[in-house]
Automatic annotation (TrEMBL):
Its EC number is 5.6.2.3. It comes from the Bacteria. This is RecBCD enzyme subunit RecD. ATP binds at G178, G179, P180, G181, T182, G183, K184, T185. Residues 10-111 form the RecBCD enzyme subunit RecD N-terminal domain. GO terms for molecular function: 5'-3' DNA helicase activity; ATP binding; DNA binding; exodeoxyribonuclease V activity; single-stranded DNA helicase activity. The gene is recD. It comes from Thiorhodococcus mannitoliphagus. Residues 543-588 form the UvrD-like helicase C-terminal domain. Keywords: ATP-binding, DNA damage, DNA repair, DNA-binding, Exonuclease, Helicase, Hydrolase, Isomerase, Nuclease, Nucleotide-binding.
């Protein structure tokens, strides 16, 4: 006999939200909360809070439904056999089939929260509606533009940027994915140029999930625009400013965005950067607010961490690290426009016929993978490290630190229960540079050069403790003075405040403004400085150290990555890869060697059916070291 859901909640094994949802569903069906229905509702809600979009009952049939520690003395309920489970749920009035508006939806063996089933199907149908190639492309003009903007290299190797550009111009939905410095922004500026050459009146917008990412996109687009060989008048129509997705959608009114299906954003083309950070609900709201004829181009690194909230939208769209092969029609198009030399691109993949990878090649036909990093050359330890981690080889990654070949990477062994003192030394030394500035604009810019990142919030290697240790050191060196709020304190906003215009993840500095006291200063997506009084500052935390999750969309010259000593579910290949690739020039990792190797083996797996809805064959979530082919993104 297993313990009740309420006991599980009291023991901290079940979130209160999941318990009350289970109770609500059970009462709605007039059954006890510890019935199969109540337990199933609690399971789906709990898994959703951990990032899954649905629960595949096959994974839980005959297995414990919730995680527990052996020493807790709690008996966790087990899933029944698959047949009994499916039959039991089919009889419940609050469990509907696909399309029914019920709190739970059962589709095949997958059980969804009704809302998430709707989000997933909305995203799938919006992307599928854009999957076919666009009619009426002037191929001669496109071929001329591709030749002009992507001059042939001497070695006649495939120019993956050119391939991705041809794909993005010819389709209403495209993804351009690549690791850091592979030229996503460079390519998209050329894509927009080619689109404007096809259709000069095209209305284009740029967006990103966070203010930081939008500011970086704005800056990168401005830099690339001046290098493009095209009519300056046409180029002036490429937008100069990227908005956050929240701002593009017009901010929240009540619990809805101002732009939605009934009041769409009127655009011909939307480019969204850092797409790996977009969770399923936000993606659903974004596509709902776009008319079907609006082109959507997603940029991102498919190997990065999935979004904080449920779903792994970019991973699902791009096949979770699988190789990409193109259909015959796509190969013919790419060759006829000169995007790739005849016979150079993968159609049927060397290790498998395309039909075993995708049920419908339209999905791979929409993806351009950038495979060469222009940032990390062959002497870059960061590049080599990212490649080894991405291939799941923690041992190889550790060997790079000891090889003596690379000056830009360093490993620090973690003492079991405290930070390595060298970490605090380095951080205090680096942060002194911005604290020495008199101008807040310069200080903000200087602050962005260096960052400490960690996997966890709490514990000896969590951001809370690291922030405390760094502040204490800087205080002892008289670099900062004062209590909770002080001149020079870095702050990160942790909520969206539409009134004040500051959003979750925005980073600024508290800075004394003459006699007016402390104000919090931020740089907007347009590059302009703005400040709010310390009193107006929405809920925030200290930001000497950030979680790797929060650092997505940012890059720094130098990074100290603090990994936990013990194995942890958070320590995954994607987390380590994302942490490493936040650094442009210099990286130090503090960690435990065994946990690091384990972490590199372990991939984030989130249950959803989006990849299958989009045409990928079977569930491709298993991305273990064997299933994953090393990619060349960072060569
Ligand atoms: N084909 C190319 N040849 C030479 N340099 C290039 C090429 N493409 C891009 N670069 C340079 O590489 C650098 C990175 O390019 P870009 O910013 O477009 O990459 P990204 O993938 O958007 O990077 P990020 O990781 O910052 O998102 C830039 O300095 C850019 O000018």
């Amino acid at each position: 006999m297993s313990d009740s859901l309420s006991t599980l909640m009291q023991a901290g094994l079940l979130a209160p939200l999941s318990y009350f949802f289970a109770r609500f569903v059970a009462r709605g069906n007039a059954v006890p909360e510890d019935s199969l229905l109540g337990q199933s509702a609690a399971l789906v809600s709990m898994r959703n809070l951990s990032g899954d979009v649905c629960v595949d009952l096959r994974q839980f049939a005959g297995a414990p439904l919730f995680e527990s520690e052996d020493d807790q003395g709690i008996v966790v309920p087990q899933g029944p056999s698959l047949d009994d489970w499916m039959n039991g749920l089919r009889g419940a009035s609050w469990v509907g089939g696909p399309g029914e508006e019920t709190p739970l939806v059962l589709e095949g063996t997958r059980l969804f929260l009704g809302k998430y089933w709707s989000f997933e199907t909305q995203v799938a149908s919006a992307l599928i509606a854009r999957m076919a190639p666009v009619d009426g492309i002037d191929q001669a003009r496109l071929a001329e533009g591709l030749t002009r903007l992507f001059p042939a290299s001497a070695d006649r190797a495939v120019d993956w940027q050119k391939v991705a550009a041809a794909i993005a111009v010819s389709r209403r939905f495209a993804v351009i994915s690549g690791g850091p410095g592979t030229g996503k922004t460079t390519t998209v500026v050329k894509v927009l140029t080619l689109l404007l050459e096809q259709s000069p009146s095209m209305r284009i917008a740029l967006a990103a999930p966070t203010g930081k990412a939008a500011a970086r996109l704005t800056e990168a687009i401005a830099k690339e625009k001046v290098r493009v060989d095209a009519d300056p008048e046409l180029l002036s129509r490429v937008p100069t400013e990227a908005k956050t997705i929240h701002r593009l959608l017009g901010g929240v009114r009540g619990n809805r965005f101002r732009h939605n299906r009934d009041n769409p954003v009127l655009l011909d083309c939307l480019v969204v950067d850092e797409a790996s950070m977009i969770d399923l609900p936000l993606m659903a709201r974004l596509v709902a607010a776009l008319p079907d004829q609006t082109r959507l181009i997603l940029l991102g690194d498919r190997d990065q961490l999935a979004s904080v909230e449920a779903g792994n939208v970019l991973g699902d769209i791009t096949g979770h690290g699988r190789d990409i092969g193109y259909s015959l029609a796509q190969l013919q198009f790419l060759e006829s426009t000169g995007a790739a030399p005849a016979g150079a691109l993968p159609g049927e993949l060397p290790h498998a016929p395309l039909s075993s990878v995708v049920q419908d090649p339209s999905i791979t036909d929409a993806i351009g993978l950038l495979r060469v990093s222009f940032r990390f050359k062959s002497d870059s330890g960061i590049g080599a490290l990212a490649r080894a981690v991405n291939a799941g080889c923690g041992e190889d990654a550790l060997a790079l630190f000891e090889s003596g070949l690379f000056q830009d990477i360093a490993w620090l062994d973690a003492p079991q229960d405290q930070l390595n003192p060298q970490c605090v030394d380095w951080a205090a030394q680096e942060y002194t540079h911005y604290l020495e500035q008199s101008d807040v604009g310069v200080a903000l810019e200087r602050f962005e050069h260096y960052r400490v990142l960690a996997a966890h919030h709490r514990g000896p290697f969590g951001v809370d403790e690291i922030n405390r240790a760094i502040a204490e050191r800087l205080r002892s060196e008289k670099r900062i003075q004062g209590g909770e709020d002080y001149h020079g304190k870095p702050v990160m906003v942790t909520v969206n405040d539409y009134e004040v215009g500051l959003f979750n993840g925005d980073i600024g500095l508290l800075w004394r403004d003459g006699d007016d006291g402390l104000r919090a200063w931020f740089r907007g997506t347009d590059g302009q400085l703005r400040s709010v009084s310390a009193r107006q500052l929405p809920q925030h935390t200290c930001a000497f150290a950030l979680t790797v999750h929060k650092s997505q969309g940012s890059e720094f010259d130098e990074v100290l990555l603090v990994l936990p000593f013990d194995r942890s579910p958070l320590l995954t290949r994607e987390l380590v890869y994302t942490g490493i690739t936040r650094s442009r020039m210099k990286l130090a990792i503090q960690g435990h060697r065994g946990s690091f190797i384990e972490g590199c083996r372990h991939c984030v797996q989130r249950s959803s059916s989006l990849s299958e809805r989009l045409g990928w064959a079977d569930a491709v979530h298993a991305r273990g070291p064997l299933a994953h082919r090393p990619n060349n993104n960072l060569s």
